[in-house]
């Protein structure tokens, strides 16, 4: 006897659970979590502090902008403009100093570069140094030191140069001035604003001038060193260009007390002068 198996049923498929509509989800009550009042107060305080910090930064920025604008306006205002240029120490050459300074009136006083103005003035050959300062509210003062000639040197037919203690040619003349010694045995004589070579005789003339004045006739650098000719006195041997002031003092003291005639006075060692 044959047994027939019952037909196999296909597995049932369950429909997915229905998703409630959006309105139904909204209507579903949510569970609220209680917040600690201290935490909420802290959050409020943090937000308040942040707003205050932003406000302070904004006010600080506006203050900086206002100060910068005020400063720029003040610098460029007529109240702090250059109205007067005062020159001191130039004597009759005041106009030349003004021209060399390249300064005009009306510009901002606080923007004047004093070092640049001084450098322009010092380019004048007869100016030894220049000092420039601002004087609020409207004045620029230029104080100069004029090169003082201590000697002269021939510079060609009918032309001599006046030289300061540094060997700089401070002026050009047509004749030798009275009261200044001549510098001899020079190898080079520059033009106005240039230098002589060597410069040691000019330094020696400046050191000897207070002691001998117009009696100092000439100064030269020879193979044996610096020598000076003093009117009515033996030749003065100075040696090298060191301790010139002490050597000048020693020479003046010995020549003033010299009893016996001499042909030279050696003060190359100022503490032990030798007359012979």
Task: Please describe what this structure looks like.
The chain has 276 residues and is α+β, with helices and mostly antiparallel strands. Among the domains are: 80-146, Ubiquitin-like (UB roll), CATH 3.10.20.310; 151-275, Rossmann fold (3-Layer(aba) Sandwich). It is 32% helix and 24% strand. The protein is built from 6 helices and 14 strands. A 6-stranded mixed β-sheet has the order 7-10-11-12-13-14, with helices on one face. Strands 1-3-2 form a 3-stranded mixed β-sheet. Strands 4-5-6 form a 3-stranded antiparallel β-sheet. Helix 3 crosses helix 4 (114-121) and helix 5 (200-212) crosses helix 6.
Kindly list the characteristics that best describe this protein.
single chain, Ubiquitin-like (UB roll), 6 helices, Rossmann fold, elongated, alpha+beta, 3-stranded mixed sheet, 6-stranded mixed sheet, 276 residues
């Amino acid at each position: 006897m044959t047994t027939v198996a019952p037909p196999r049923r296909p597995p049932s498929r369950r429909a997915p659970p229905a998703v409630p509509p959006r309105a139904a989800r909204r209507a579903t009550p949510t569970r609220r979590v209680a917040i600690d009042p201290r935490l909420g107060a802290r959050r409020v305080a943090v937000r308040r502090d942040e707003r205050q910090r932003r406000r302070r930064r904004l006010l600080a920025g506006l203050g900086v902008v206002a100060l910068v604008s005020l400063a720029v306006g003040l610098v460029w205002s007529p109240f702090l403009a250059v109205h007067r240029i005062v020159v001191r120490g130039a004597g009759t050459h005041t106009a030349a100093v003004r021209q060399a300074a390249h300064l005009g009136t009306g510009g901002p006083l606080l923007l004047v570069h004093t070092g640049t103005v001084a450098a322009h003035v010092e380019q004048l050959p007869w100016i030894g140094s220049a000092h420039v300062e601002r004087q609020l509210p409207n004045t620029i003062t230029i104080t100069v030191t004029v090169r003082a000639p201590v000697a002269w040197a021939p510079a060609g037919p009918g032309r001599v140069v006046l030289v300061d203690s540094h060997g700089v040619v401070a002026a050009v003349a047509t004749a030798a001035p009275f009261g200044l010694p001549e510098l001899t045995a020079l190898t080079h004589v520059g033009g106005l604003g240039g230098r002589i070579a060597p410069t040691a005789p000019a330094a020696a003339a400046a050191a000897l001038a207070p002691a001998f004045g117009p009696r100092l006739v000439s100064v030269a650098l020879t193979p044996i060193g610096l020598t000076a000719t003093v009117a009515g006195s033996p030749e003065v041997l100075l040696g090298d260009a060191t301790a010139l002031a002490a050597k000048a003092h020693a020479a003046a003291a010995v020549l003033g007390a010299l009893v016996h005639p001499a042909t030279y006075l050696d003060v190359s060692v100022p503490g032990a002068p030798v007359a012979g």
